[in-house]
Amino acid sequence: MTRFKNIFSLFARIAPVLLIPGLALADDTPVPDKGDTAWMMTSTLLVIMMGLPGLALFYGGMVRSKNVLSVLMQVFVVFSLLTVLWVIYGYSLAFTGTGTWIGGFERLFLAGINADSMAATFTDGVVIPEFVFIAFQCTFAALTACLVVGAFAERIKFSAVLIAMVIWFTFAYLPIARMVWFGEGYMFKLGALDFAGGTVVHINAGIAGLVGAIMTGRRLGYGTTAMPPHNLPLVMVGASMLWVGWFGFNVGSNLEANAFAGLVFLNTFIATAAAVVAWTFIEWGTRGSPTMLGGASGAIAGLVAITPACGAVGPMGAIVLGIIAAVICFWAVTKLKRIFGYDDSLDVFGVHCVGGIVGAILTGVFVAEGLGGVGLAEGTSMLDQVGVQALGVAITLGWSAVVAFIAYKVADLTVGLRVAEDQEREGLDTVSHGESAYT
Fold it and tell me: Going from the N-terminus, what domains does the chain have, and what CATH number goes with each?
C-alpha cells in the first residue's frame, strides 16, 4: 500500500474526519454515491443500537435488580439529551471553523446546512450528505457519555448525571474530538492515529468515569457484601449487540463502502474474537472456571482496543492486539481496582480507558508495514509514532479528568452527587423513578 507512505494520505485514511463541513456542491461536483450514503445511514443505525439497547442491556444486567431501571434510564436519557445538544451546538464546535482546540459558531442550530450540503470523504471527488455525517458523528458523542455512567452506577442522583454529562460533553468531548479528528486539530496535525475513537471515545469516557466513581464514593457494602450481576443473560445479549453495532462504529468511520472498509471490518471481527478467547482462558486458568461475564468483558476489551487501530493494522496484528488487550484489561479489573480501592461499578475505567490506552499506543507499533500494517508515514519511525500516540493519550487523560472533576463538582454543589443512604439501600429504581423492573 504505497499510498500510505505519503503522510497526508496516511492521515486521510487513518483519521476518521478530514472533512469540509458545509461544502456546497457546485454544478460539476460529483453527487453522493447511493451505496456510500446507504452504508453510512446503516452504520449510524448500528451505532444507535450499540447504545440503545446494547449498552443499556449490558449495563442493566450487571447491576443489582433494584437498580436496573436507573441505569437504563441514565443511558436512554443521556443519549437523547446529547443528541439534541449535538445538533444545537456540538457539531459546530467540533467540526467547523479553523481553531486548533475548538471550532466555531457558524453552524449553531445547523445554520446554513440543507439537503444539498455535502461532506467530503477520504477519496477525492467522493462525498456524502452532510446531514448523514452529522447524524453519524452524533451517535459517537451521545454514546461516549453513556459509557461514563457505568462507573458510578447504583448510587448517583439522576439529576447529577444529567448536569455532569452536559458539562463534560461540552468541555471535554467536543474539544478532544476536534483535536483528534478535525483537519486543523492539534493532535491530528501532530499525526496521532485514531481511526474510530480510542482516545476520543474510550480513554475520554474511561477516565471521566474513574473521576466520577472516586468523587461519588463507594457503594454501601462495597468490599464486604457480594454485588453480583443480577441478570447475566442480559449481559450476554447486550455484549452481543455491542459487538454487532461496533461494525457501524468502526467500519462506518471509513465514510465509504469501499475495499478498504473490508480490512476494517475483518480487524474489528477477529480482534474481538481473539480477546474473548484470551480472557476466557486467563480466567479459567486463574480462577478455576470461565464465566459468561468474563467472556462478555473480553469482547468489550477487544472491541475497545481495535477501535483506534482498525484502519491501521493488518489482520494478524488485530489478533495480537486483541489478546494483549484481554490480558491487560483482565489485570486492570481484577488487580488494579483492588490495589487502589476505587469502586468502578461496571469497570468503565478498567476496560474502556485501559483498553483504549493499549489500543492507541499499540496502533503506533502494529501500523508498521513489517508487522502487517498499512505502513508508517514517510520519514516517521515507529518510535516517533508511538511517542505521538502516547502524547495523545496523555492529553486526553489530563484534559478529560480535569473537566470531569469540575463537572461533578458543579453537580455536587447544585443538586448533590449521591442519594441518601436509605435511598441507596432501597434502590434507585423506586427512589429515582417510581418504578420497579421486576414484581
Answer: 2-218+226-428 (1.10.3430.10)
